[in-house]
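Example 3.2
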Amino acid sequence: MNDSILETKGLRKAFGPKEVLKGLDLSAERGEVIGILGRNGSGKTTLFSILLDLTAADGGSAEILGLRPDGSGRLRGLIGYVPEKPAFHGFMTALEVLEFRARFFKRWDMAKALDLCRKLELDQASRVSAMSKGNLAKLAWIAATAHNPELLLLDEPTSGLDYLVRDHILNGLIHELTEGGKTIIVANHRMGEMGGILDRVCVLRDGAIAASHAASFLAEEAFRATVRLESPVSLPAGVVALGGGSALRDFAVFGREKLERLKLDPAFAGAEISPLSLEDSFKVLLGE
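Structure, written as tokens:
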């Protein structure tokens, strides 16, 4: 049985002379949670727009839930999407937004939508124009999940939100996972807070997936080596300098085998080894 939910091959997209996607390959299995790590302008939102059949690719192929984007809009009824900046009709109340959206989704579950309003403490009578950023994010999350999609695309779903709202959103993510084995692709600057639910992290750089790592590998086999160096050294693959100009230097080391080999280097004798946090691992992968 093929459990593939999504596969893109050689996906390309340009806007005028600017190439945004340059042969992007990405796959996702049923129930997998993938974090897309990339700088602003790296193409994350463009990728989501193509998967949602809102933007046509210039080349390559994409297959989502057995369908190809063809401009018909069929895919949008099967995917849940939380944009970075949710937008709804300002004159509507939360309940009116949900009732309006229900007309466009065959599998819309109003009971679930209202239950999520209760769990997220969103007043159904509140008007969109008067909502805080946090309440807009809650409404966007409800609108993205009430039709029970198999695939969720989340573009910066917790950006700019306070701790309590972020906690609500993340709890919602976990619930969706445990309830129905949803496949989730999330692009988030605060990827560290997603560490507990991610299966894989893909680095989007220069319009393509530059690297892919299991989240468990980054959690268990990413290290910080602190050592005093009196002269420059040649670093093997998988070892990255973390900046600093003094003799006491920090290095990121990815992989236990690489760490053991590094310890054999006389220049790193006596190095202090500690775990590298997920947040720092993501920064290294981004080249920050």
